[in-house]
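Model it.
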Amino acid sequence: MLLKNKGLNLLHAIDGKETIEIFKKRKDIDLILMDIKMPVLNGIEAIKLIRQLNPDIPIIAQTAYAMQEDKELILQSGCNNYLSKPIKTNELINMLNQYL
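Modeled.
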């Protein structure tokens, strides 16, 4: 919702499995915002699979898991950066500008 009026072409997946399927089909993806808690295939596992396909795509985790241990696990899984929920618009835009 925060990005709808920002002139970006957004794709949305309902779970980690669909995320992987979309990523395999689309070669025009510049950045991934990855939720960590998802059904079917969680964000950590999806990140690991994406990194096997493309080690360079920027991945930003967005999650309610805000403990330091969670953040370390998420970053170690292959994320470039991390935003804790609730997401603040300015933080998200600033982070997107770092990677796009």
